[in-house]
Amino acid sequence: xxxxxxxxxxxxxxxxxxLLPETKVPELVxxxxxxxxxxxxxxxxxxxxQKLPLPIPIELIVIIAAxxxxxxxxxxxxxxxxxxxxxxxxxxxxxxxxxxxxSEVIGDAFAVAIVGYAINISLGKxxxxxxxxxxxxxxxxxxxxxxxxxxxxxxxxxVTSSLSRSLVQESTGGKTQVAGLISSVIVLITILKIGxxxxxxxxxxxxxxxxxxxxxxxxQFMDVPMLWKTNKVDLLVxxxxxxxxxxxxxxxxLAVSIGFSMLTVIFRTQLPRYSILxxxxxxxxxxxxxxxxxxxxxxxxxxxRSSTTIYYTNAEMYLEAxxxxxxxxIGKLLMAKKKHDAKLxxxxxxxxxxxxxxxxxxxxxxxxxxxxxxxxxxxxMNKDEVYEGQxxxxxxxxxxLNLKQTSTYGLSQGQVNLAFQNDxxxxxxxxxxxxxxxxxxxxxxxxxxxxxxxxTHSIILDISTTGFVDTVTVKTLKNIFRDFGEIDIxxxxxxxxxxxxxxxETAGFFSESIPKSRLFVTVHDAVLHILQRLEQTDFIxxxxxxxxx
Length: 549
Prior knowledge:
- The protein has helices spanning 3-6, 8-18, 25-47, 58-73, 75-79, 102-131, 137-152, 163-171, 177-194, 203-213, 215-218, 223-230, 232-248, 250-269, 315-326, 330-370, 376-398, 446-454, 471-486, 498-506, 523-534, and strands spanning 274-280, 286-288, 295-296, 301-306, 401-405, 436-440, 458-462, 490-494, 519-520.
- It is of the alpha/beta class.
- Among the domains are: 219-269, no CATH class; 272-329 and 400-549, STAS domain (Transcription Regulator spoIIAA, 2-Layer Sandwich); 333-399, no CATH class.
- The strands form two sheets. Strands 1, 2, 3, 4, 7, 8 and 9 form a seven-stranded mixed sheet that branches. A two-stranded antiparallel sheet has the order 5-6.
- Helix 16 packs antiparallel against helix 17 (376-398).
- It is elongated, with a radius of gyration of 41 Å.
- The two termini are 57 Å apart.
- The model is unreliable at 373-383, 385-445 and 447-454 (pLDDT under 50).
- This is Solute carrier family 26 member 6-like.
- It is a multi-pass membrane protein.
- The chain crosses the membrane at residues 60-81, 101-123, 178-198, 235-267.
- InterPro entries: SLC26A/SulP_dom (IPR011547), SLC26A/SulP_fam (IPR001902), STAS_dom (IPR002645), STAS_dom_sf (IPR036513).
């Protein structure tokens, strides 16, 4: 694209303003008369369209009348009114395109093709929405390609929809392919035989006809107040498209508007709504607890959902929102767990060394008291006994392990969906075992005690809104399973679509640590599975699972 193309429209606007004092009054009068006639008759057509058998073809009438008046009154000679002039007749003989020009026009040809297709499909969808039919975009693209291919052998202009002519035809009542066929025949006859009859048609009349039929396009400015009230992002796209097309020419403006609209899509995915779901009593519905007061969280269980697809641009935000909504800071808890393990190990080693030291001292004392009366074998036995006794005493004073087990009662209602329960050898499978929660009582380990204070033992990730997964998504989910697993919190996936499962399998997501038994078709199935596995009775679901695969 040349530098002049960037300022072509600006120059046009400047020239219009600069040449306003030089306006030709006769042509202005012709335009105003044609404008008044067109507007009045079109309003009559709109008001009496149910009574009129056919709309009044005012455009055709104005063209014929203006041509006759201009010819017989000699307006071009008397008032210097610009007319269409000579119209070439006949068709050129077909010939093969000049292939030597391909390298010079390939860039512009690509831009023309994109802009032409965009205009064609936008007009088609506009009229389809207005008259209630569908437009096949692939079919339109094939039609444009074939038309331009054939037209290339006849030295034709590039083929696309004409905004002005399409609006004129639509405003005169043309709605089917018959109207297009008749228009094509009339254009062909005009080119071959009767083109010379319209040589005296004033250009001002043609411009007025196009201007009047653009009324529908000008009405789109009325969308601005509506978009301001309903969706400011769409309003911004509208304004950027309008300004870029005006200031940067049509092809470059279209490229800018497409790029900007794609940025808005990416921007919207960066601001999804994250929520914790709760169950509505006596139903299998799980809704946002912040929006619906009837939705109550299940004790010890967090159900987390994102309103958009998880992919590389928002995967990190997803993990941060999960920690924030669940109230579990993985970084702090993992650090606290490492400190706790290191502290426990140091105490055990210290106790072991102390026990050995005391055992040696005790053995030495016993040996001195015995004055050699014990045999070497008995001395060794006494040594072991003293060591074991001292070790037990030391551990008893040093570290206390308190195991707390949940109550074991079966669910009275509900069935667990075994859609993905194939890995029965996994530790999370249905073995009848009861999940135990181990509490290590060590002074100063406040972060570890916080985990058990929260009593969150399971988290369900509702990914029903996810349409695809990429490499970053798979890594993020693996990290979630690993990190939460290290602090004894089980992770489950619910709402998995078949295509998502296939993509996860292809990416190597499933393993011994992440079996398919962690997948569930619905959130309700996952909840039933967790509660039955824990055999809790303080929260019983009265809605059975009916989902089958």
